[in-house]
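Researcher: Here's the sequence for the chain we discussed earlier.
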Amino acid sequence: MVTDAPQWLHGLNETIFPEAPLAVEADGSFVGRFRRRVLSSVYQPVLSTVDGTTVAHSARIRCIFEEQVESPAGVFALTGPDALVVQLDRSARTLHALNYYPKARATWRLFLRVQARLVESVGRGHGRVFVGILGRLGVPTKDVVIELPRHTNEDPDLYARALLSYRSLGYRVASECLDPDDPLLSGRYEVIPDVVAVDPRWLPDPAALPRLVGQIQQRGATALVHRIETFELARQAVAAGADLLQGYHLGLPARRPEAARLGAEFSSRDAAAREPVM
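Model: Thanks. This is the structure I predict for it:
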């Protein structure tokens, strides 16, 4: 952990995100400030279906404006110029990393979302600035999963350039696909992410989920079923052979990363024959 956090943050605030600065609270936690909003971190557990344990957390912004909770999407809508999007995005990812480590267990990984406008505006060298920040925290890039927005899937060249840049620096990469006909899995893309996420609520019928999970795994990626909000969705995801699960039914977002566990009723029949993921 950074021992001179105030001084280090002062340097980052001046050079990398001057309009979205970070600060240390009295309790040792970190917050961000942007357009009179106070930003903090929350983490939702990601669980493995092999042994039912927590293997990672997905970080999201919690935004307070005039004592009211505000949507993170609304915060980024205030950014205006692309340069400001880049600042806020990097500030948010730094905030999440600072609040996650060293509270997280050594075996956990951190999912961090990047904004589509950052991917488009940076052009090349995605992830290089953040390497130095993680290095100061003693966090190897292999422990971070960058969530690329599916919006960039509409441009195969841009998507491949960003994915390969992150991967060349040691990060893992995740993206969402919508259905079995999603362009990400159609063969139009020469490279696909390490983790492909699926929202089962958008599929036409339950039978589509095992087909989609199978397609993802055949392409060599890890299948994450997220936005699981009911017992039935969790049951379907396990039965479909998903590798990872995430959702409100399995664990609520919390300011401190917490461990969750799948119940015995979700035990996968073929778990013993599968390799652990993540």
